[in-house]
Design goal:
Number of helices: 2
Distance between the termini: 123 Å
Number of strands: 2
Shape: rod-shaped
């Protein structure tokens, strides 16, 4: 095989610039034009073309993602508003239950204070296992003391 060597410098000492020549040949006229383009320009133009093609192919994806996210944001904001209303209703109900519990505790405290003053024989009758054993001695457990 033959080896090809490309000279890096011309005979005069100047560096060899690699460039492309584009010939423009018109049909109607006999005069043609030469266009010399350097390799650096071709490389930059190719890189710019690749970048623009990539951006053009990627932009529909970005557009669809943006639309999807905006719809999802609207849906989530509506859901958030609904949950805030439900939370407010729950807080109102919880406050009402807490108020009723406070009233119940106050009433129970007053009744307990009245039962202590009357010596344990207040208007409230005790019911439970001890009162059942007094009424029905046959059902009394064997280990209970009087």
């Amino acid at each position: 095989m033959a080896k090809f060597r490309f000279p890096l410098r011309r005979k005069g000492g100047r560096p060899v610039r690699s460039s492309y020549t584009v010939l423009i040949l018109p049909h109607s006229r006999s005069r043609f034009r030469k266009l010399h383009v350097s390799r650096a320009f071709v490389a930059c133009a190719g890189a710019a073309l690749l970048l623009l093609t990539g951006a053009g192919l990627y932009s529909p994806h970005l557009l669809l993602t943006l639309r999807t996210q905006s719809l999802e944001l609207e849906e989530l904001s509506a859901r958030n508003e609904h949950l805030q209303q439900a939370n407010a209703q729950f807080e109102n109900r919880l406050a009402a239950v807490a108020e009723r519990l406070t009233q119940f505790e106050q009433t129970a405290g007053r009744l307990a204070a009245g039962a202590v003053r009357s010596g344990g024989r207040g208007p409230v009758r005790r019911r439970g296992p001890a009162s059942l054993h007094r009424r029905f001695p046959a059902h009394r457990p064997s280990d209970t003391r009087r």
